[in-house]
Amino acid sequence: MIRAILAILRKDLTLELRKAENFIAMMFFAVIILLIFSFALPPDNDNHKNLAPGVFWVTFLLSGILGLSKSFALEKDLGCMEALLLAPISRGAIFLGKMLGTLVFLLLMLALLIPLFSLLFYPEALPYFFEVLGLSMVTALGFSSLGTLLSGLTTDVRFKEILLPILLFPLLIPLLLASVEILAGIFAGRGFQGELDWLKLLVGFDLIFLIASYLTFDFVMEL
Amino acid sequence: MSAPLLSVQGVVKDFGYRRVLKEVSFDLHGGDFTLLLGQNGAGKSTLLKILCGLMRPTSGQVLFEGRSVSENPDALRQALGQVSHQPQVYGDLSAKENLRFFASLRNIEDGAAKVDKALAQVGLEKVANAQAKNFSSGMFKRLGIAKLMLAKPRLLLLDEPYTGLDYKSVGFFNQFLGQFVQEGGAVLMITHQLDCCFELASKVAILEQGKIDSEHGRAQFNYETLIEHYQRATQ
Q1: How far apart are CA A149 and CA B165, in angstroms?
Q2: Does the residue B60 lie in any domain?
Q3: What does R_g of chain B's alpha carbons equal in angstroms?
Q4: CB within 8 Å: B90 and A11
Q5: Is B206 helix (H, G, I), strand (E, B) or coil?
Q6: CA atoms of B42 and B152, how far apart (whole Å)
Q7: How far is B179 from chain A (nearest CA, A)?
Q8: Chain B residues with CB-CB distance to A85 below 8 A
Q9: Is pLDDT at A223 greater than 60 in this prediction?
Q10: Which of A83, A86, A188, B67 makes a 20 to 30 Å CA pair with A97?
Q11: Is B214 contained in some domain?
């Protein structure tokens, strides 16, 4: 099973690095969102301080969904999804391979998003780079777990670009709430210790949706 | 007679209120080469998807070596080789990378050497490192055949495998299929190009209005009667 997961992960990374268009689109979109926020909101330092955690995670969600929607598109292009489903591997391995591929690129995006966010919206964020990156790993895991499941579910559906966010965003509300609160705590200098309850919620969200998505992926991929 | 490799028992498939397959039943034994004929929309591709385990039937069951495919899909997936309308390869990977990826999913030992050998056998060794998206449909099919060679299946489900193949490639593919059947493998093929595979076929089944209308053994048909069956089925 691990061999199959790694093979799918390696294949997805190779394809993504070879084209890079998906990643470039995600980053470009993130920059645009940050610019819109910085132009739309009053250039008041207190205002930006209060809004910074929300702006950061909204930017992540909106640009991250671009990556999610493309995750299964490359399997559909020449009928590869069928070949993958007919391979003698568990559907759970397919889910984990695809989920990890998405996660790697989301983390790469977040690692670049933090300095960009500091540059374009909230300069005080940069000293907290490693704390924010640590939080990003936990948030991105939940996002990619649920997102990969729903992306697989909507691959064959008409208007999938619209349907995916409609299904995904309401379910992500606990993740968004917890991430915003923890990030606000980090920016306020309280670190993770000051936001343990929110951190538990975030980790719980990750575990529930990672396990549930792994177990239900088989049914989701039924035609 | 030996136990069937694949047994289709009363398979029904509904899409909403429309019944596409009506109690389809037949067996496929090792060494069988069955042609499944029928007009467009008769339900041939749907039946193939159900046989692969990609789609659940509304009722009825498919057994592989006596075990239900929906309850135990792993045994079928291990033994199955499939060719569909689509190339089922990643356009941005090279031919070699594609085969190595599918070899690693099948846990094939000494995969790299076997990939090189398969590519040479299908005549793609010179374009082994070229991205598959630049291939012609015939080259896609050859790559598909190389995938089959690597997988060493016991059951082949083929949906229009001759589309895009030139005369030489048809000969090569038929040679592969002939040897496959001789070694005890079973083939179920959907095709409209009867002249390509007539010599190999040992059985013909005609799917008409969602059910197997008739089945003929090799002794019961020659090329002319096969064409008659086909014309009747596709009228």
Answers
A1: 37
A2: yes
A3: 18
A4: yes
A5: strand
A6: 30
A7: 23
A8: 54
A9: no
A10: B67
A11: yes
Q: Which parts of chain A fold into alpha helices (H)?
A: 2-19, 21-40, 45-71, 73-76, 80-86, 91-120, 129-154, 160-171, 173-187, 196-220
Domain spans of chain A? 2-220
Tell me, yes or no, if A78 comes closer than 8 A to chain B by beta carbon. yes
For A97-124, write each residue's pLDDT tens digit.
999 999 999 999 999 999 988 888 888 8
What tokens appear for B234 in the block? Answer: 């596709």
CB of A14 less than 8 A from some CB of B: yes
Tell me: the pLDDT tens digits for B49-98? 888 888 888 998 998 888 888 888 888 888 888 888 788 888 888 999 99
**Residue tagged 């209308």 (tokens):** B213
Give the model's pLDDT for residue B123: 84
Backbone angles phi, psi at B156, to 5 degrees: -115, 125
Instruction: Please tell me the least confidently modeled range out of B13-22, B77-86, B214-223.
Output: B214-223
Do B21 and B64 meet the contact criterion of CB atoms below 8 Å apart? no
Amino acid at B27: D
Name, in order, each residue with C-beta under 8 angstroms of B123's C-beta and a sequence gap of 6 or more.
Answer: B142, B172
Assign residue B36 the CATH number of its domain: 3.40.50.300
How many domains, in total, are found in chain B?
A: 1
